Batch of 4 targets.
Target 1
Amino acid sequence: MLSFVFWVLLLAAFLFWPVSNLVWTLAVRRKQRRLKQELDERELAAQKRRARFIAVFLCLLFSLVYNLSRLGLPSSG
């Protein structure tokens, strides 16, 4: 069980940075297109916090599903 949790957290940690940057880029571009102007530093920072929050859940969910498919359900023995 402990090794399963280790692999889930390790994969999620490796995925966090690229996923958060991808979510941030998509959110900023969408907001700039909608407002038809560049975003200021405060708005960019707010989008970065939001992207990181979303990325945590996406990475953990993907990592859990991937490890379940590769390793199977963890057993206690």
Target 2
Amino acid sequence: MAATTTQLALAAWESLLRAQATIAREFEYTGDWGDVLPREYAVLHALSGSDGGHRITELMEDALLTQAGVSRLVARLEKRGYVERRDDPADARACRVALTAEGRETYRRLGRAHARQVREVMTRALDAEQLETLRELTAALLAAAPAPAPGPTPTPTRSQRRRPA
């Protein structure tokens, strides 16, 4: 009996989700992160492409975290000297978060180690053609997604908060 489109979509979604979670867990447990957690690295990575820094809302989008999560991570990174808050020249009420020289060096060091780990994990099961196909498929999913609605991040329901990450 052939699977319905819904069954196939659900199976593909679960497979994608499990692969991402499994690989992320492997990165967390076996990566050489020093004193930086993988989620903190995501913030450093998001900031690495901008000398002028990002607003918290931009970091939320880039690091795929909630406003509260990004705010806590930024506070921890700021305390350790990896990021600094700057006035936003476009909006006196806002600030921008930028890498410090120490944060940029830490990002580069961790980025080299992370890139080696990503290469190892992704190429142990996939060849170059499969990696390109995976990149194209995930890019298509992202391109078809609706733009996020402006406003606050929705509060998860009680059952969503209990689910393991």
Target 3
Amino acid sequence: MPLNALQGDVPTWFTTVRFLLLGVQVVTSILLILLILLHSPKSDGVSIGGAAGNLFSSQRGAEATLNNFTYWMAGLFLATSFVLGYYF
């Protein structure tokens, strides 16, 4: 049952948890934006730099690590979104 439906005062720990979750969500959203911008383009189709897509193609390990970190940040963002949406 969401706490919004309850009458009365909201406990202070509940407010603290809400602000912590909001902080995690803000930091996660900023990190997601940066991580997505760090990904290398997959094709040379319409890129302005010509061969700019091949600049980081030799670093497959770094790209895999970047992908995993992006997946974890997206999962954390979705989890905090669901919790904040349901309880707050």
Target 4
Amino acid sequence: MTWLGDGPLLTIAHSAMSESEQERLSDLGQRSAGLTSEEQAELALLRECYGAITLQKAWAYALLSIRSGKARFGQTAPT
């Protein structure tokens, strides 16, 4: 990721799970006590995906901040 330009880094910084994945993660997380083994596996996979996206976003923001010498959290995604 270090070698990416600012445009691709901004795209990563503004990325997110799809709405349906977010809703499913929320639903499974709220009722985690009574999940089937398949649902538990799905929840684990969704949590792993969420964590990976969060780390990628943080790394992208950090690189952009280092490059510019200022915080980039208010910048909008490229069109």
